[in-house]
Amino acid sequence: MVQRAMQDLTYTSLCFPEAIKARGMDNAEDIPYYFYRDDGLLVWEAIKTFVAEVVDIYYEGDQVVEEDPELQDFVKDVYMYGMRGKKASGFPKSLKTKEKLCEYLTVVIFTASAQHAAVNFGQVGKDRASLLGGRWPGQLSCLRALGGLHHLLHRSGGGGAEGPGVWCSQGPVEFVLEFVPSTGCQCEGGGFPGPTGVGGGGSGRRPGRQSWVRAALAGGHPAGSVTVPQYDWCSWIPNAPPTMRAPPPTAKGVVTIEQIVDTLPDRGRSCWHLGAVWALSQFQDNELFLGMYPEEHFIEKPVKEAMARFRKNLDSIVSVIAERNKNKKLPYYYLSPDRIPNSVAI
Fold first, then answer.
1. Sign of the C-alpha dihedral, residues 226, 231, 234, 238?
2. How many domains does the chain contain in total?
3. Cβ atoms of 342 and 113 closer than 8 Å
4. Interatomic CA distance for residues 315 and 225, integer angstroms
5. Handedness of CA 167, 173, 175, 180 (dihedral sign)
6. Residues of the chain with pLDDT > 70: what percent?
7. Which of 29, 116, 181, 192 is 20 to 30 A from 77 via CA?
8. Which residues form the Lipoxygenase domain (predicted)?
9. Are the beta carbons of 280 and 123 closer than 8 angstroms?
10. Does residue 241 contact residue 233 with C-beta atoms inside 8 Å?
11. Widest CA span in the chain
12. Is position 128 within any domain?
């Protein structure tokens, strides 16, 4: 599978502006509200500007780039052993100018940080307010998706029209509870679920965790409303099934809804998938985000000043994205620099 994917991977496809243009999605007037493009271009330009400033400090001209043996060996190694020497990939075997070096470094940084964040942290929904508030987002999405999927499977199997809330009240609640952390999910009313229950709205009541889970699946909360994150790709199993229980159809127009449901993963595999994508979508407690460099590999004043300007530029992008997302039912924040880890993080 990786080998097949590598056949289509090209250097240009990793250059964000060129990739957007190649897909015909670069015209903001024709295709407005494409936030992946808009935010991605902002981050790309910020990284490119920062890289150019640092390159200018250490490389006086193109000849210095061409005569840097460690740099050239690195680029050659990527081409020969990473891309298997495939000329059609478009990956350079060497870099001869400062401009090409800046582009190359921007591709590396953007791909390992912003591009990864846009893909990885979209697996399970998180609302921005929950993220900034240190809450545990995503768990209600997982629970409701689990209940909704059971409802779909139950109904297709000829049983009663059992809703997700009913199933949670009468079904394997203990199993569902495995997806609910004992602490960390803050309610809008100010309460937190503790080891034995949920507080909310200052009422002082602490109903059991089972009550909280049942209410979450049913769409409510036992002691006040909960900030519920948006649904994203993988928390609704039919949208991104981890496995399929039947081969794909060989003819068009003959597939029934029953066949589709029978092809989807069973409840056990769905639960495993929900837990997996939820875990993969969480930030670490000590996560380092784009522009954060606690280890001082550069001690020269010009570089430190460039890093400070980079962080300031990123902060302005965060403000732009936050302002745009205000009052939106479906905000897009995956490419907000304060949500982009410095490197691949899963």
1. positive
2. 2
3. yes
4. 32
5. positive
6. 67
7. 116
8. 1-346
9. yes
10. no
11. 75
12. no
Q: In 3-state terms, what secondary structure has residue 342?
A: coil
247 and 309, same domain (yes or no): no
Pair (156, 275) in one structural domain? yes
Query: Do 223 and 136 contact (CB within 8 A), yes or no?
Result: no
CA–CA distances in Å: residue 188 to residues 63, 132, 305: 60, 14, 41
Count how many Cα atoms sit within 13 Å of the Cα of residue 218 in the half-sphere of its side chain: 18
**What is the token pair recorded at 102?**
């800046």
Q: Are 167 and 265 within one domain?
A: yes
**Domain final position from 256, 280, 304:** 280
Tell me, what amino acid is at 94? S
* pLDDT mean across residues, the chain: 74
Residue 102 shares a structural domain with residue 215: no
For residue 70, the Cα-to-chain-centroid distance in whole angstroms is 34
Counting Cα atoms < 13 Å in the Cβ hemisphere of 137 gives: 24
Note whether 248 and 212 are same-domain residues.
yes
User: What is the model's pTM?
Assistant: 0.66
CATH number where 32 lies: 1.20.245.10
Structure confidence by residue, pLDDT tens digits, 17-62: 999 999 999 999 999 999 999 999 999 999 999 999 999 999 999 9
First to last CA, the chain: 20
Instruction: Give the separation between CA 201 and CA 136, rounded to whole angstroms.
Output: 18
- Helix or strand (DSSP H, E) at 310: helix 301-325
The span from the CA of 107 to the CA of 171, in Å, is: 49
Distance CA 303, CA 50 (A): 10
| CA pair distance 4, 25, nearest whole angstrom | 25
Q: How many other CB atoms are found less than 10 A from the CB of residue 106? A: 22
**pLDDT of 75-109, one tens digit each?**
999 999 999 899 999 999 999 999 999 999 999 99
Domain range for 293 is 2-121+286-339
Q: At which of 238, 265, 280 does a domain end? A: 280
Please tell me the number of Cα atoms within 13 Å of 233 on its side-chain side: 11
